[in-house]
Task: structure prediction
Amino acid sequence: MQDDDTSVFEALAHPTRRQILQDLKDGELAAGEIAARFAATGPTISRHLRVLRGAGLVSERRDGNRILYSLVTGRLALSVGDFLSTVCPEQIVLREVRKRRPASVSDAAEEQART
Result:
């Protein structure tokens, strides 16, 4: 595994960081909004956000005095997908099936492959 991928998996190792990624799936959030969702201190959440940003999983932008974070979905999908392809080669086949078929047919093919 490459160093870039290592940083992604290290970032995913902590449940708080995984929850932050899930919270960002619906759109960007301010750092304070993210911190308010956890019992941890603001500086602790800031460290988690720094790890996620360092791994390329979130991006940030400034809006006045607020820092807004958003999910970088492509980075996560590529890193995890590449890893799965090496340890689970049928993922390559499933990916190709999904590219060629409409979503409903592709979902059925994926479900069949899992069983």
About this structure: The first strand starts at residue 29 and ends at 30.
